[in-house]
Design brief:
Shape: flat
Structural class: mainly alpha
Distance between the termini: 28 Å
Order of helices and strands: HHHHHHEHEHHHHHHH
Largest sheet: 2 strands, antiparallel
Helix content: over 70%
Length: about 300
């Protein structure tokens, strides 16, 4: 039923909702952006010409290369050890599970800067690292005989350089975090798939390699990418070892020339550039390992659209 004078075909005049505060916020943001750009261009404290001459000097490039190598080496060792720790943590063997838990507990509790200083001073704990028969000197004193069970050895300060100590400290710390990430990825797989693999006669190793890990990578890759970016930034901490990475070199130039602030800005720009590259790599890795889930989600949307149209 319609009222007299009205028809069901009368056009409805839609009045758009006005958002005046959006325009006010946009104007404020534009003004603040213009002020920031003006400050960058006119403030003499930035010393852009000085920064351009020194931000790409030979020592800085060597430091950037060292930071990248530290990141790659630490993450490679950390991921490999983290996978082993995650499998140990999920083991039914209480000894393996307990050892993994203790490792994760310790290295997640101690700050990385403390670990780096500690590993930088391992030469105080051991002057030499030697391989051979365990407890040979203790056994010789116990039985009153002479036993020389040492096969070979090396000086600790010679082998454990600043770079090696930094890589070791970062890798062992990262392994604890990667173990939890990998464990979460493995536990995200439904138990039914594991039961199906077992019913087909697949071994635990085969199931882990062919069933669990390919699917768990969708869960593992995003936080691993974040950990890699965080690792690149944490390489600045190895100045306490010391190791001559990017931040150490930039800080040294600023201290020698008394132009500290331009080198701080240069450090920000360097880390922005390097982390941007890692973000691009992370994006493509995530897209690669989420191909199946994206196609399944697209099919679900298409099916729901067809159901709604029907």
């Amino acid at each position: 039923m319609t009222e007299p004078g009205n028809t069901s075909h009368d056009a409805i005049r839609a009045v758009p909702v006005r958002h005046p505060w959006r325009w006010v916020a946009t104007a404020v943001i534009v003004v603040l952006t213009a002020m920031f750009a003006h400050m960058l261009l006119t403030n003499s404290a930035f010393q852009w010409s000085f920064m351009a001459r020194n931000a790409f000097a030979g020592p800085v490039l060597d430091g950037a290369r060292a930071s990248v190598l530290l990141t790659v080496g630490s993450m490679a060792i950390g991921i490999a050890l983290g996978v082993v720790l995650a499998i140990m943590r999920l083991s039914v063997n209480p000894i393996l599970s307990g050892i993994a838990w203790l490792y994760i507990w310790f290295f997640r509790a101690v700050p990385r800067v403390v670990l780096l200083v500690l590993f930088g001073n391992l030469g105080i704990l051991y002057e030499r690292f030697e391989f051979g028969l365990p407890f040979d000197w203790a056994l010789a004193d116990l039985f009153g005989v002479q036993i020389d069970g040492r096969l070979f050895g090396f000086d600790a300060r010679t082998v454990i350089s600043g770079f090696a100590a930094a890589t070791l400290g970062l890798a062992l710390s990262e392994a604890a975090y990667m173990a939890e990430i990998v464990r979460a990825g493995i536990q995200s797989i439904p138990q039914g798939q594991l039961d199906a693999a077992a019913s087909l006669g697949m071994s635990r190793t085969h199931t882990l390699r062919r069933i669990i890990m390919p699917q768990a990578m969708r869960v593992i890759i995003p936080p691993t990418g974040n950990e890699t970016i965080a690792m690149l930034k944490d390489t600045a901490l190895v100045a306490y070892v010391p190791a001559y990475e990017l931040w150490f070199q930039l800080q040294g130039i600023g201290s020698r020339t008394f132009q500290v602030f331009p080198m701080l800005v240069a450090a920000c720009l360097w880390y922005l550039a390097l982390t941007s590259v890692l973000m691009v790599v992370q994006y493509f890795l995530e897209r690669h390992f989420s191909r199946g889930s994206r196609s399944q989600a697209a099919r679900m949307r298409l099916d729901s659209g067809r159901a709604g149209g029907a």
